[in-house]
Amino acid sequence: MTNQPITTSVFDLFKVGPGPSSSHTIGPMKAAFDFRQRLSSLEPSIQQQADAVHVLLYGSLSATGKGHGTDRAIVAGLLGWQPETTDPDALLDLLRDSSVSYPIPVGEKTLELEPQHIHFERKRYDSPYANTMVLQLRQGEQVLYEEEYYSVGGGFIIRKGEPDVASDNQDVPFPYSSMAELKEQLKTNNLTLDELMIRNEMAITNRSRADINQRIDQILEFMHKAVRRGLRHKGTLPGSIKLTRKAPILYQKAKGMSQSSDSFLIFLNAYCLAASEENAAGGIVVTAPTSGASGVIPGLTYLAKHHFHHDKLTLRGGMLAAAAIGFLVKHNASISGAEMGCMGEVGTASAMGAAFLTRCAQPNGSISAIEAAAEIAIEHHLGMTCDPIGGYVQIPCIERNAMGAVKSYNAFLLATSGAASVQKISLDAVVKVMKATGRDMSTKYKETSEAGLALSATEC
């Protein structure tokens, strides 16, 4: 475990933006926007020499970037768009016509970005992260200025030469970098998990308690809007697979069998599929912790609100518990499919969902039950591959979100059955195993579409 305290904001973990992939869409858009800003502050002599902007994509950004819309996201960022305010329909229109170019301001001049300026590089690139992009300002073949960015999962980016902002030395009142340290802080200071998370968040963001609570409510509303849209929208998803949306069908089936014990699970599946299908269509979703896993938490929170009738206070507490688990995985392993496979995305989301359910059901419960629920959920996702067919976040990603949510619910049941205190494996231990598993897993099974289910594309 790293010794640096966790200083990630809840609102960096739960980010609003367009699907289908936080690593491939939100991260690259943010990197391109950052590059655009940096171009504006270059020396005028450099700006005047420039005649083009080029983008080089490596790793799974290259292998599956077309299916994930990475090229469109980069164009959007260079145009000055931000993830939370992007119109998803306008985003889908970008690069649809190969003859259209896009104006990029560089000082007093404007350069036209054309589709051929975005390069999906197949060669290996010496980089510390799997998802790497290099943005260049050129005069002919001469590179006048460049920046290298890494998309490290969940829409988080790192610029080469800068430290990971989530690992800086920012002071928080109750620092922790592991579950063991988190539990010690709670015990020593006689705090609830809710209170610790809120007070650390206040220090990280300088937001007031009321502002943080209001923002959590807004994040939940963004999630639930995605669920509601997905329950309404019918037809096929974008891309060559021509996958039919299933959420509306399942939802109607669940409503028609309300007296059956199975309806509960069908409703949950419908909610998770609804948000995931919206993500696959490029709609506005919330990274939870990634876009590829953005159906699990929305489905569970929608269920908690509309079926369990939990109030706002309870839902907020559940979200803070989910964030605590997401922080620990991101800090000590990774939430990136390119680094960890799908255990880093849906596996983490499932653990967060299990923590959410446990906290909601036991407002005054122990941290041990939350830890046990999260550990069980991760344990049963270890080694899960990321192998999207055609590079689209559709098969197996959409159904995998529903399966992850069901595992969340079962992990919650197991953890709250009275046996949490005798759980043998700690969360810290399973996260350590998760990191080692991701390191040992073949790259072919980590978001490259070079193995696994991805090879069955010809059958679709």
Automatic annotation (TrEMBL):
Keyword presence, Metal-binding: yes
Assigned EC number: 4.3.1.17
Keywords assigned by UniProt, alphabetized: 4Fe-4S, Gluconeogenesis, Iron, Iron-sulfur, Lyase, Metal-binding
InterPro entries linked to this entry: ASB_dom_sf (IPR029009), Fe-S_L-Ser (IPR051318), Fe-S_L-Ser_mono (IPR004644), Ser_deHydtase-like_asu (IPR005130), Ser_deHydtase_bsu (IPR005131)
One Pfam entry name: SDH_alpha
Biological pathway: Carbohydrate biosynthesis; gluconeogenesis
GO biological process, one term: gluconeogenesis
Residue span(s) of domain Serine dehydratase-like alpha subunit: 189-454
SUPFAM superfamilies: Serine metabolism enzymes domain (SSF143548)
Swiss-Prot/TrEMBL catalytic activity: L-serine = pyruvate + NH4(+)
Molecular functions per Gene Ontology: 4 iron, 4 sulfur cluster binding; L-serine ammonia-lyase activity; metal ion binding
Domain Serine dehydratase beta chain intervals: 9-161
Record-stated family: Belongs to the iron-sulfur dependent L-serine dehydratase family.
Annotated protein name in UniProt: L-serine dehydratase
Organism: Spirosoma terrae
